[in-house]
Amino acid sequence: MAILPLYPVSILLELNSLGFSHDMLPKFKSLIKKPNGIILVTGPTGSGKSTTLYTTLNILNSTEKKIMTIEDPVEYKLKGINQIQAKPKIGLTFAAGLRSFLRQDPDIMLVGEIRDKETAEIAVQAALTGHLVLSTLHTND
């Protein structure tokens, strides 16, 4: 059993402290400033995928940007960001959440993990239609 620290006051990390290589850090900083596209953070469990995405959201968060997330679970509550918990038992899947987000025209969307073809297709479509999409893929080293 794992115990997650849900809803801490804030996550105050900087991208510089997350282990990006000297070459990759400026590239990543440039990518997250783009108005659209898809950024996938990949790695095994415990490799820092969620920490990287939450740090990125903290950097991007401003009153000028509409940011929405669907997560399972919501690990950190971020002020000014609309976060929802996926609940597949009632039909609120990652794909359903993304579809709903598109009707609300956010600037940035985060989907906790791309686990299936439908979610991947909607995420790519969102990126192609002017949204910045952030997500993770679980991969082995």
TrEMBL record:
Residues 102-116 form the Bacterial type II secretion system protein E domain. InterPro entries: P-loop_NTPase, T2SS/T4SS_dom. The keyword Membrane does not apply. CDD domains: PulE-GspE-like (cd01129). Keywords: ATP-binding, Nucleotide-binding. Pfam families: T2SSE. Signal peptide: none annotated. GO terms for molecular function: ATP binding; ATP hydrolysis activity. One of its GO terms (cellular component) is plasma membrane. PANTHER family: COMG OPERON PROTEIN 1, TYPE II SECRETION SYSTEM PROTEIN GSPE-RELATED. This is Bacterial type II secretion system protein E domain-containing protein. It comes from marine sediment metagenome.
